[in-house]
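Why do we bother with a discrete structure alphabet at all? Because it lets us treat a fold like text: something you can write down, compare, and reason about line by line. To make this less abstract, here is a complete entry for Carbohydrate ABC transporter permease. Read it the way you would read a sentence in a foreign language you are learning: slowly, and without expecting to understand everything at once.
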Amino acid sequence: MKTKTGRKHLLGKVSMYGFLLVFLIISVFPFYWMFIGATNPSSSMFASPPTFIPGSHFMENLRNLDNNVGIWRVLFNSLFVAGLYVVLALAISTTAAYAFAKFSFKGRNVIFTVFLLSMMIPYQATLIPLFQMMANFNLLNTYFALIAPQLCYPFAIFLMRQNFLSFPTELLESARLDGAGEWRIFMQIVLPSMKPALAATSIFLFMFQWNNFMWPLIAIRTPDMYTFPVALSTLSGVSYTDYGQVMMGITIATVPILIFFLAMQKHFISGMLGSALK
């Protein structure tokens, strides 16, 4: 009986790991294919049979991509816009979420409900008035126009509020009795315990801004202000598209996302589980 039970247990583990291995290959293959395309000429993308071996056109595709869109300037623009956006949006969302979670004031629940309802407004419906406002203030084709409009991100406020609600109010009252000011309580007592939630929120904010295409396409007028989504969209021609350049651009655009997510992965998982349980 023990032998049969052991065999069943071993067979179950082998089946589970085999199942996970299949899904791992399915998940990783698009990234591998992207890298293969970045190292081969455009014609190899439609070769029959397809090639799964890295080629020798990596540097050629990189030079062509840089000549067409100025990829290093695009990389700087994307990193600067996304990085500054994460810092500012995180500061706004944490302070607003803390106020909604730990301060009692008239209309708090109504205001928070309005914030949540604003998530139901189609993003495209805000583009025309936003464009008119930026044009009136002569802010189009600036970093300010790319960063400022989405700084107050409702989902980030909601996510941080759910985590702040779990923080013991008794600790805040004790700190106030000891003479600590509200800013000191927030910075030295509350925020250090919210690192997982901050990491999870920063990933959402970074992904949102890094992949934002519609608004930068409208607000940007010159190639020197392009971010990755806009720059990559210009590589698709009417009669011919160099897929080697496209794959190279996608590869470079994917690397910062992978690095950022892998660096925050542990905190991201614990932050999401914490917000769900709390």
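What the structure line is telling us, in plain words: The two ends are 44 Å apart (CA to CA). The CA atoms of residues 51 and 157 lie 47 Å apart.
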